[in-house]
Each structure stands twice: as structure tokens, then as C-alpha cells.
Amino acid sequence: MDVSDVLADLLAEQQSLDDIVAGLDASQWQLATPSPGWTVADQIGHLTYFDGTAALAVVDPEGFSDAMNLLFAAGGTEGESSDDITLGPYRALSPDELLAAWRENRAALASAGATLENDTRVAWYGPSMGAKSFLTARMMEAWAHGQDIVDAVGAEREATDRLRHIAQLGFITRGWTYINRGLDVPSTPVRVDLTLPSGDASRFGPEDAAESIVGPALDFCLVTTQRRHVDDTALVVTGPSARDWMEKAQLFAGPPSDGPAPRST
After folding, report:
1. How many alpha carbons lie under 13 Å from residue 82 in its C-beta half-sphere?
2. Does 79 have pLDDT greater than 70?
3. What is the rounded average pLDDT of the residues 53-74?
4. N or C: which terminus of the chain has fewer CB atoms within 10 Å of its end residue's CB?
5. What is the arithmetic mean of pLDDT over 21-35?
6. All domains of the chain, ordered by start, with CATH?
């Protein structure tokens, strides 16, 4: 798959979320979401900030480095948090103003993304990323934070085969899940056999692995982005190592965190 294909899917995922939030009234923008302390508006503010810095990382790496250092320094400054940097300015905006700001930063990212080649590497908050992984990470963010919004407002969102990008990211970050927690990376192979919304298959890992995760790609993405507990999905998990992974899975960067507790207890 070419980087331009990933960019097209990113833009489609962003527009899918735009279609949902554009129809919300002012009170719905202030609804609490599953992310503690964050409203619907905060979810869009978060995307707005990081879509903007993603564009900056492509077109102005030095400017991005300055923004990154400012964000990292916020955690060590008394009375200031990272949310003050990433969300503070957007919390002062009306819903219409915030939506316009997100659209502006998305357009900047789209323009920047169009300049990327398959072998381009982009500086980011951890190690640099290949262009396709970089854009996939932005798609994952739009989809995952969009899920928080969907859950908060009770909206319907059609699952699409764009989930294949997020599923792949969920698979390749198995090791990261453990490294991020200071744990040894399991050596037991796990086969992941997923069904995309179209009915097509998305498979990862050795076919002869004794341990496996089988089921809808949507559910695998919900678990690895920590939007659902594995017990609240249709995933069939076979083997202790596979189960442990699904209970700890974290495909995104940042400090280690735990997903939601099971609802069906």
C-alpha cells in the first residue's frame, strides 16, 4: 500500500467524525466522554492540537521540536499540565470556532501529508516514524477519540475496512505494550485472524501459532485502543499469552494505562 492510500483513508476517517460532530448542539459538545475530565469538545481540541503539530513535524521539523519541548516541559512546571498546552486555547472557543480550527489543522496536515514519500521518516514525540506509520497513527487517533465521542453522544458510526490500518498497528505494538510497562516481551507467538466489516480477512502472525485471537477487526481495534475490555467483545482468545496481551494491550504512545473494566460482570 502506498503512503497516498493511507493519507486518503486518514482524510476519510477524519471526515467521518466531522459528519458526527458537525450536527451536535452546544450542550452535546459539553458532554462528558469516557476519558476522565474530557468533554466532547476536549476530544476535538486534542485532535486539533496534534493534527497541527503533525503538519508542523512534516513541514517545519525545527518548529515541531520547539513545540514538543514546550509540551514536555509543561509536566515539570508547577501549576501547568500538558492539557494546559494542548487543550487550554481550544477550551476558550465556541463549538463552531473549534470545529473550524480542527478543519484548518486537518487541511494543513493533508497538504503536508501529500508531500510524503513511502520512505520518508517524520520526527514525532518518541522515535521518528515512517510516513505510512505516521499517518496511520493520526488515523488511529481520529478513530479512537471519535469512539469516545460516539459513546458520549449515542451516535451511530459505520465500521469500515479502514480498520485494517489500526488492526495492523494493534498487532505490531504488542511488544511496545510490555516494554512500556517495564516487562519482558513475551516470546510466545500469537496468531491474529480478523474479519473486516466487508467480510475480507486481515491476518497477522504465524499461521501455526498455538495461541490465537479470532473475531471482528472492529473488536480488536476497540481493545487495543483501550476503548473496550476484551470480555465485552466477540473476540475468541485462545492461550494465556494471548489473553494477557488483550488485557494489557496499548497501541498508542504515552505512559502505560489500563483500558476499561468489563461491563459484563
Report:
1. 10
2. no
3. 93
4. C
5. 97
6. 3-153 (1.20.120.450), 163-248 (3.30.1050)
Looking at the whole model, is its pTM more than 0.90? yes
Give yes or no for a contact between 29 and 39, defined as CB atoms under 8 angstroms apart: yes
Q: At what angle do helices 163-172 and 217-224 cross, to 10 degrees?
A: 50
Write out the DSSP string of 42-87: HHHHHHHHHHHHHHHHHH-HHHHHHHHHHHHHHTTSTT--HHHHHT
Burial class of residue 249, CB neighbours in 10 A (0-12, 13-18, 19+):
buried
Q: Hey, what's the torsion of the CAs at 76, 83, 67, 112, to 10 degrees?
A: 150
Residue 101 to residue 119: CA distance in whole angstroms: 30
Q: pLDDT higher for 75 or 188? A: 188
Determine the pLDDT at residue 57: 98
For residue 133, CA distances in Å to 33, 172, 225 come to: 27, 11, 16
For the chain, give the number of residues: 265
Please report, to the nearest 10 degrees, the dihedral formed by the alpha carbons of residues 80, 84, 255, 166 taken in order: -170
Give the per-residue pLDDT at 109.
98
